[in-house]
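Task 17 of the worksheet. Students: predict the tertiary structure of the chain below and write it out as structure tokens. Keep your answer in the requested format; marks are given for formatting as well as content.
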Amino acid sequence: METGNSRRSRRRQLVTSLYFHIPFCTKKCPYCHFYVIPNRLPYHHQLLSESIALEWERQWPLLQGKPITSIYFGGGTPTLFEGIGKILEKIPHRTPDCEITIEANPEESTPELFNRLRSIGINRLSLGIQSLDNRSLQTLGRIHSAEKGRQAILDAEKAGFQNISIDLMYDLPDQTEESWRYTLDQLHHLPIHHLSLYNLTIEPHTSFHKQNVQPLSGKRSLRLLTAALETLAALGLHRYEISAFALPGHESRHNTGYWTGRPFLGFGPSACSFWEGERFRNIAHLHRYAKLLKAHESPIDFRERLLYPAQVKERLAIQLRLKEGADLTSFDLPLETRSAIEKLKALGLLQQEGAQLQLTERGMLFYDTVATELM
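Model answer:
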């Protein structure tokens, strides 16, 4: 007998998603580990626009008969790129309620920009706010002020956006509970529908890594997280994934696809894809990406297809990031994974009701431990 979760999973597989990586940035933040390059106008048309058009032609046969349920423009700062509208014009057979997201930074945000984005079909905005405290913004190397961040959110609402997401970051060096609460308190007066909450992690090859920056940890970090959880709950932003909070009906459809295994194709340098059980990634170099496509060659420089049981273990670990967890009837779990689940339940990190397996509140704090045990 097919369960409700099984039916939802089957419906998800009938649709797909698209991701476009726009690498241009005015300034690379010291914590950023994504592929970004300086914003130079000659690169826009001569390299990126032409190359994405060629890649679209190359991948288009894969999309035949697959309704597109979400489109995401990430970066970098995709709002710097004026070719977004032309890309959207090429994308047919979207679902009627297709979620179309673009990332934006406050320093480039204006009412005119938001009106233009709305006019070309963007219906979801993800703003890189990070903090509403000027001292924290300076620590993060951001070039916008707290006031500019607040104004960007308000301008987005005035432009008609009814799905506004913001990013916030905590565990910053020398961050105090007072400064963090100062940011959280301002959320009560801002029209946000979704929030992604990240603790600062130091990734290899970033400026922070080279500077040996040390984020907060331990009890101080837990107090900051607890303050955030209390504030977001009071605002009606429910936690539907470890780092994601939303008003009902405003959960990120695109990101939920990543956690549930929905197939997606990525376009642009460094963009990743997941298609028919295989992961692949484009080369993280705009000029080489463009050169390969112009020569009618593949820009993919990495491929991986996990086999059983590694594929099942990974899918379970990723899906457990969701608050609702995973329906075990849709997994053919090996004996060692079932044993690991029992061990994690005994440790109070997982809980199970019927076939539904979920992280406990404690498990959400130690997700990395859970994922390691399962995989």
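Marker's comment: The chain has a mean pLDDT of 94. DSSP finds 15 helices and 17 strands in the chain.
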